[in-house]
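Sequence in, structure out. Go.
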Amino acid sequence: MLIAFKLKLALACAAGLAGPLAIAPLLSEGGSPDRAMRDQQSMVELHPGAVSYRIAGDFTRAGKQANAPLVSVRFERSLSIMQHQVGAAEYQRCVDEAACPALDGNVTVAIDRPAVQVSWHDADAYAAWLSRKTGEHYRLPTDAEWAFAAGSKFGDDALPVDANDPSKRWIARYESESDRDADDSEAHAFGSFGANENGLLDISGNVWEWTSTCFVRTALDDAGATISKSSNCGVRVAEGRHRTYITDFIRDARSGGCAAGVPPNNLGFRLVREPNSWISSLASGLGKARVIARS
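Output:
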């Protein structure tokens, strides 16, 4: 089974995706998908398009801290993504079937509230369970897909770089990320933070969302060419009012585990739904997005 999983993971990497995906059987354990449950998922269909995107991760250039390269990423296929984060009541169904770890006791389980204080592994388990239940393939979005769906809510996190005084960059990052109400830790009802131009609710609200993208350190030379890369999939990218990197088993980054930046108030997630034909496309090496420009 481990060998089979590694083969699937290798296929995902070959397709140009940023991190491993939850590859799950496409039928429920009873052999019949729950179509009614599938119809309950509120999805937004985004047409093919491009996004200006600063690559996730930590970059150095000629041995000094540097901003990540700004690229234009083109999505060749439409993207189907949940309109709002996975709800606490929806997640609880997975818990009731012993397929997901239980939510913490202080999380309100309500039909109109997001599931929060969930780790990356919790989110991945839910995606696998939902895939089995519905006969569709659900997974966490890559960081680039999240940026594409977020639209104008996705901010450029470039910061001033002073090669002679790295502390200025650290201070600038803290100031940019701490400009929010840190006491607003309640998970609000869906729609409380409005919709973006793509119709997605609560993007960049007070819930940060897990992605499948691993944390990567990249060293560039003077000309901007890559010298080396080091990937750590024990740390994942989470997106919200700012981008952050969080250890994958952490449920509450405020208590520790935020690898960089000001920790988010809440950790939640929304999922991408792939057509069933996606797996055969993945096997044939067809990527979903490509970089069309770099600066």
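Check: The chain is about 25% helix and 25% strand. The first helix runs from residue 2 to 14.
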